[in-house]
Structures are given as C-alpha cells and as structure tokens.
Amino acid sequence: MSRFFRQVLTFITLSTLLGFSPLYAQDHSHHDAGAHVSLEEEEFETGKLIMHHIGDSHEWEFSKGFSIPLPVILYSPDRGIEVFSSARFHNDHHEYNGYHLVHGDAEKIVPVDESRTVYDFSITKNVASMILGAIILILVFTSVAKAYKREKGKAPRGFQSAMEVLVLFIRDEVVKPNVGPNYARYLPYLLTLFFFILINNLLGLLPGGANVTGNIAITMVLAVLTFIITHVNSNRHYWKHLVAPDGLPPALLPVMIPVEIIGVFMKPFSLMIRLFANITAGHIILLSLFSLIFIFKSFLLAPVISAFALFMNFIEIMVAFIQAFIFTLLSSMYIGSAIEEHSHADHGH
Amino acid sequence: MSLLTPSPGLIFWMLVVFLVLVFILSKYAWGPIINGLKERENEIQGALDLAKKTKEEMAQLKSDNERLIIEANAARDRIIKEAKEAADRLVEAAKDKATAEGNRIIESARETIRSEQAAAVAQIRKEVATLSIDIAEKVLRRELNDKSAQEQLVADLVKDSVKLN
Q: CB of B15 within 8 Å of any CB in chain A?
C-alpha cells in the first residue's frame, strides 16, 4: 500500500514540475498552432458536458469512442412495438427508420414525421444501470439468505455479517421505532427501498456510472410508492387528524385544513426532490471539478483538483448512505404516522 | 428544464424493475434473513433466560443446602444429646439396680448367717445339754464310788467343759 502511495506522490510531483516546464507545456497549450483550429471547433462547453453526464442516454458511454449500444424500444399506435439497437443512430444525421435521435438539453427520440406520436420505452443507460443494481441486490441478498439457512444456529460470518449490520440497522433503528408495532409488514418494502437507493447511489459514483437516483423519474416512482403505501394502510385517525386536528380553535380550521392537505402532498414531493437534488448535485460538483482541469488546461492544477475530487468522492460515498438512510427513515415516519393508533396524549401537532 | 421532467419510459421501467425487485427480495431474501435473525434472537434470548433461571436455581439449591446442613447439624446435636442422656439414664438405672441387688445379696447373706448362727447356737445348746446330762450322769456314777474319785472326776469334767468351751 505504501508503495502505491509513493508512486502516486511521485506522479503528482512529477506532473506538477512538468507543468512548469515550458517544453512540456507547449504540447498541451492552445498556443500550439496545429491544435488551435480543432480546439476552436470543439469549444469546451462545461454546461453541456455536465448535463450530458447527469442526463439519461440511449447508449452507455464509458469514454469518448467507447460506448455500449443499448436496445431502443419504441411504441407508436400506427407501427406497434419497434426494437432496435441504439447503434443504428450512429450515422451523420442520427437518423434511423424514420426516427431522429436529438442531442439537445436531453437525449430524445423524435419521429421524423412530426404528426406521429411515439412512446419511448427504451432500455436507456439509467434502466440498464438500475437493472444491474437490481441483479447485484438479488445475487447479494439471496446468497446472504442462503447463508442464514446454511449456518442456522451459528454466528454470522464474512459477507453475511457485513450485510446483517445494515439490515439490522434499518430494522431496529429506522423501521421499528418509526413505523410502530406492525412494522414487519412494511419491512420488506423499506429494506428494498434502502438497498435499491444505496446500490444505485454507489453505482452512480463509479466511473461511467449512470445517474439513476439523481433522475427525477426514479425518485418520483419511489416517492409515489411510499405515498400509496402510506395512504392505502392509513387508519381513520390519520384522516380525522387531517380534517379536524385535535386541540385547534375552530376559527383556524379554514387555514389549517388546506395546510394539512398540502402537507400530505408535500411529503412525497420533498422525498422526490431531496434524493434527486442531492445525488444530482453531487454529480454536478464532481463533474465541475473535473471540468476545471479542461477549462484551465494546466497540469499544475490537475493534481490539486484531483485531490479535491477524491475528497468529494468520499463525501459522495457518505451522501450515498445518508440519502438512502433518510429516504427510508422518512418513508418509515410517514407510514408510521398513518397507521399509528392515536392516544389522547399526542394532540397538538 | 429536462432534468425536472420525468420521462415516461423511465417511469415505466423503474416501476417494473422496482416492483419485481421488491417481490423477489421479499420472497427469497428478506423473508429468510428476517426469520433467521428472529430465530437467532430468540435462541439468544432463550439461552440468556435459561442461564438466568439456572443461576436462580443454583442460588436456591445453595440456600437449600445451607438450610439442610444447619438442620442436619441440629439433628446431630439433638441425637447425641439424647443418646448421652439415655446412656446416663441407663448407667444410673444399672447402678441403682446393682446397688439394690448387692444390698439384697448382702441382706440374704446376713439372713443365712443369722439362721446358721441360730442353728449352731441351738446345736451347741443341745450338745451342751447332752454333755451336761452326760457329765451329770458320770458325776452321779462316781459319787457312787468314792469321794476323791468324784472330785477328780469333777475336776476333769470341768477341764473338759472348759476345753469344750
């Protein structure tokens, strides 16, 4: 390990020194006559790059020129279901079979004939990443579950005990105290929620990873599921509290009832925005840091920015856990508040 | 703002993938894991309860033992005391009996001696009477012969009678 760090240190020192060297800098500066024209053409657009990276895509790009094409699935009332590879769009006009791949603010497939309507159900980068995450979760937790059967009556070992810490944490610290005595019914959903968000947060931090949990469609589905579960299982105390809060002067009711009703919808909305914003913000910060290297085009700055990006990456790992935890915690609290058997002691909130 | 517009395709796939994930994990992962955890917790709780119970039983046993020992000691002391008393009583009784027996033997011996003595005295008396009569007869017979012989005879007789005595 120390050898590795020494090498990294040497590399950083060398690259810093070489950054000062006029001979070496010449090759990389835009004063270079040959490169000047092409650089003018490919003016570095940070905003576009970042939006491209945090947005969805029809192919999984790991680096420029190396990308995995993903299946495009389209449904249109007149043509039915069409499936083809996104590599088909790799031509001068980004056009195939009457469809046009638009690289705008976001990547979109639009029919050339504008009178047609088409629904895009493609396996995009986010879908593929999500499926990958789901497969990882299934493999990990079915193997852990097998360990529980195999090692019955024994102490947990290895990977099983590592996962057990998380499962126990969610069960005992998040779900049990917040949902209440009937927590067992909601535990599978909440555990899946936590680990789904966590694995996708972490996969998103890998190089080439997709911004799954930083996509509003994903967080919206999760928030709506929590909303549905909350209200399907809610008891009459919850609804009564909504329209007639305890211990409130009747004069305030016209104000409080709308506030309460807005609150009902604000809860899932805040869940949706919180996760989306946190993860997207993390990706934007990291991408902005890396973009700085290309903006300044200096080897002097690169190690400093890399070090800072590394630091940010550690913070993002922490955020990955925290956001998964918060989403699960708040979902538990919302479910718990809806199924709670009210006593008279807790009025006035 | 494309970032804030959810795409319908992604919503569809997300719903499908997530619901399938919830279903599969609930059935094949969370169920066995949560049951395994619960079983283990129950086992641990059971073991702890058993240990506590055993400890209580041990304490109970110990106090029982102590009580038994105290009781046994008391019983032993009592038995020894009683035995001692019984022995003392027996010795006392034997002593009394022996004394009584001795006294009885002594008494009977005395009685025998007394009766023997009485018999002997009676015998002597009878013999003395007979002797007296004999002497008297002899004296009477000598008197018939001569005076000196008579005196001699009396003297002899007296000597004899003294000897007899």
A: yes
Kindly report the backbone phi and psi dihedral angles of residue A335, in degrees, each rounded to the nearest multiple of 5, phi listed first: -65, -45
Under 8 Å CB-to-CB from A106, ≥6 apart: which residues? Answer: A51, A55, A56, B2, B3, B5, B7
Cα dist from A258 to A198, A213, A232, whole Å: 35, 31, 21
Between CA A317 and CA A54 the distance in angstroms is: 17
- The residues spanned by each domain of chain B are 38-164
Per CB-CB distance under 8 Å, the chain B contacts of A225 are 18
> What residue spans define the domains of chain A?
2-41, 46-124, 126-346
> What is d(CA A70, CA A85) in angstroms, rounded to the nearest whole number?
6
In Å, how far is A50's CA from the nearest CA of chain B? 11
Joined together, the tokens standing for residue A150 give 């195999």
Residue whose tokens read 């035995």: B83
Between these two residues, A171 and A117, which has the higher pLDDT value?
Answer: A171
Task: Spell out which residues of chain B touch residue A145, defining contact as CB-CB under 8 Å.
Answer: 28-33, 36
Per-residue model confidence as pLDDT tens digits over A186-199: 999 999 999 999 99
Query: pLDDT per residue over B116-159, tens digit each?
Result: 999 999 988 888 888 888 888 887 776 666 777 767 777 887 88
Q: How many residues does chain A have?
A: 349
Q: Do A221 and B14 touch (CB under 8 A)?
A: yes
**Smallest CA–CA separation between B47 and chain A, in Å?**
12
- Cα separations (Å) of B134 from A343, B123, B156? 147, 16, 13
Mean per-residue pLDDT, A314-331: 95
- The residues near B128 (Cβ < 8 Å, ≥ 6 apart) are B164
Task: Report pLDDT for A116.
Answer: 85
Question: Model-level pTM greater than 0.90?
Answer: no
DSSP character for A56?
-
Give the closest of B1, B22, B39 to A189, CB-based: B22
In this structure, how many other beta carbons lie within 10 angstroms of the beta carbon of residue A206? 9
Q: Measured on CA atoms in the order B44, A161, B20, A213, is the torsion positive or negative? A: positive
A285-297 per-position pLDDT tens digit: 999 998 888 888 8
Give A100's pLDDT tier (boundaries 50, 70, 90): confident
